[in-house]
Design brief:
Number of helices: 25
Oligomer: single chain
CATH architecture of one domain: Orthogonal Bundle
Radius of gyration: 26 Å
CATH class of one domain: Mainly Alpha
Shape: globular
Strand content: under 5%
Number of strands: 0
């Protein structure tokens, strides 16, 4: 029996689940990494000879307008970030002390403006803050006699951008604050600390990881803004995104647009790199680096203790030391009210009988809804937005769902790298992605096509859809599948009858959030659509720039109603 075959006691190695993230990683590489690199190389290559040279950068830095615009962009972004952190901190801290049911309602009010396009919100502020608008009328009625100029200046731009980005800052800081053990505050007070001292020495340092993360996100998004400075600012507030649009749409100077995009991208990556070195961005899934992040963030929190103590002492001298909770509630409720004002301002304007936009309207009419529903340009752009949004939601959910499953089940270190890759479209400014997609899509014939817009929207929707799906899979009990297997269920039966019913709510929520993102997105549609394939936001953008009419308000009401409905459904379906 020497030649008898021996049984194979080694188990066949199962392939790691991370390979399921491959399609999504290829999608991000093909639509983000490759186009961005191609755009960067374009700016360094002579168009006639193909030789590497720096002429375009020399011209750009020698022209004062580009240097001034670059400085404007960073200064405005920093100012907006500071405003969002200060105001957002107050609201987030207020949310942490609320009862659970009231907090959910307040969070819903904060979340809703996120899904209303900055285009609509800025348009509402143009009407409300006009020289004869409702705010000017209130100030005049209170006895103010000077000239009222609330629009087209630095203050209006910072206000508009902060209004758009404030919910992001609040929702980024809130989880960290909710995770702080309130017993630490009580313990510090039993040791003799006042409420103010407990806040400055305990709560503030522990909340700094959320504050620094919020600052990073707000700054990155702010440097790519172009809607708010274009609508609410003057030429002195021109930002780099506006120059990029002008170079592409008016002059088709892709090389200069590529150079501007390269500068913006370099600055963004430098900020992210510094943040990573200080706070540990790369370790969102690594506990050791999270501890490093928290420790260094608390170190920054300790740096402001002196200022906090000075503020507390100053308030005490004026007899305001005990107004903390009351002032916190009043300030936070005022901010939340300001967040939702643009949302509730459109319906009255849409039912105005006047031929121009005014708030409040002096007469009632449904003529603008009738015009919206009977004008081919409006209905066509609306239907195109629906179709593109549906395709975006499906594609983003499939790619993100596979990747989230792979990361949740992987046993390798590739999970962290994959996680960061799927967040990349959120880290790179949207304007850079739009220009890069326009450049690469022009080479393959996808400019001015519905498919091109849908692909771009799926790319930018991928991070939020991915996070929702990953949260869903992280909350799934994998032992249920093992239990089904012991009862004789095959792998496909485990997926069909066990996993899919339990993750269905998260998948529906992810799909709807991807759809919402696409339906309200302007930047990608503006570049890739090239003025030929107009979605509803691009049609509204053209209407604001060319001929503002109450039909725009009627279209805005349709968007707000749809977004609100889908948002409520998505929130109800999303895993808690």
């Amino acid at each position: 029996m020497k030649n008898a075959p021996q049984p194979n006691t080694q188990k066949r190695a199962k392939p790691d689940a991370i390979w399921l993230a491959g399609p999504g990683m290829a999608f991000v590489a093909a639509l983000l990494i490759v186009p961005a690199l191609a755009l960067i190389l374009l700016s360094f290559r002579d168009p006639s000879t193909g030789v590497f040279e720096l002429t375009i950068y020399r011209k750009m830095f020698s022209a004062g307008i580009y240097v001034q615009t670059l400085a404007n962009t960073f200064v405005i972004a920093i100012q907006v970030t500071i405003v969002c952190l200060l105001v957002g901190y107050v609201v987030a801290a207020w949310l942490t002390v609320m009862p659970e049911k009231r907090r959910r309602l307040a969070i819903w009010l904060v979340l809703l403006p996120i899904w209303i396009s900055p285009l609509l919100k800025n348009f509402a502020w143009i009407v409300l803050l006009a020289r004869k608008g409702i705010v000017a009328q209130i100030l005049t009625g209170m006895g103010y006699e000077g000239e009222i100029n609330l629009l087209f200046g630095r203050g209006a731009v910072i206000f508009g951008m902060a209004h758009a980005l404030l919910p992001i800052a609040i929702l980024t800081m809130l989880p960290t604050m909710l995770g702080i053990d309130r017993r630490l505050m009580s313990a510090s007070q039993t040791l003799g600390a006042t409420k103010s001292q407990a806040f400055w020495r305990v709560f503030l340092p522990l909340s700094m990881p959320g504050v620094t993360a919020a600052g990073l996100l707000v700054f990155i998004i702010a440097i790519g803004f172009f809607i708010t400075p274009a609508l609410l600012g003057s030429p002195r507030e021109t930002m780099i995104g506006q120059l990029m649009i002008r170079q592409v749409q008016q002059f088709f100077n892709m090389r200069l647009a590529g150079a501007l995009a390269t500068l913006l991208l370099v600055v963004t990556l430098a900020v992210v790199f510094v943040y990573d070195r200080i706070f540990g961005l790369s370790a969102v899934s690594g506990e050791a680096t999270q501890k490093r992040s928290a420790a260094r963030s608390r170190g920054i929190g300790n740096m402001v203790l002196g200022a906090g103590a000075a503020v507390t002492e100053l308030l005490g001298r004026f007899g305001l030391g005990n107004l903390g909770p009351r002032a916190l509630s009043i300030t936070a409720m005022t901010v939340v009210t300001l967040l939702i004002i643009p949302v509730i301002a459109f319906p009255p304007m849409a039912f105005s009988g006047s031929s121009f936009l005014e708030f409040p309207p002096k007469s009632f009419s449904t003529q603008w809804f009738e015009r919206y529903l009977t004008t081919p340009q409006w209905t066509g752009s609306t239907l195109r937005s629906f179709a593109i949004a549906f395709a975006t939601g499906i594609l983003a959910t499939l790619l993100a769902g596979l990747a989230a499953y792979g990361i949740a089940r992987t046993k390798t270190r590739l999970g962290s790298v994959t996680f960061m890759l799927f967040l990349l479209p959120m880290i790179i400014p949207n304007i850079v992605i739009a220009v890069a997609l326009f450049y690469i899509f022009a080479e393959v014939g996808l400019v001015a096509t519905n498919m091109g817009i849908a692909l771009g929207h799926a790319l930018t929707a991928l991070p939020i859809v991915f996070v929702i799906m990953l949260t869903t899979f992280k909350g799934y009990d994998w032992r249920l599948g093992d239990a089904a297997a012991t009862l004789g269920a095959s792998k496909m039966q485990q997926i069909r009858f066990v996993m899919l019913p339990l993750i269905r709510g998260g998948a529906i929520s992810a799909f709807l959030f991807g759809l919402l993102h696409s339906f309200d997105e302007l930047t990608i549609a503006l570049f890739v659509g090239a003025g030929v394939k107009r979605t509803l936001p691009t049609k509204m953008w053209d209407d604001i720039l060319l001929s503002v009419s109450p039909t725009l308000a009627a279209a805005s009401v349709v968007i707000i109603l749809l977004v609100t409905l889908l948002f409520v459904i998505a929130e109800r379906a999303r895993p808690k």
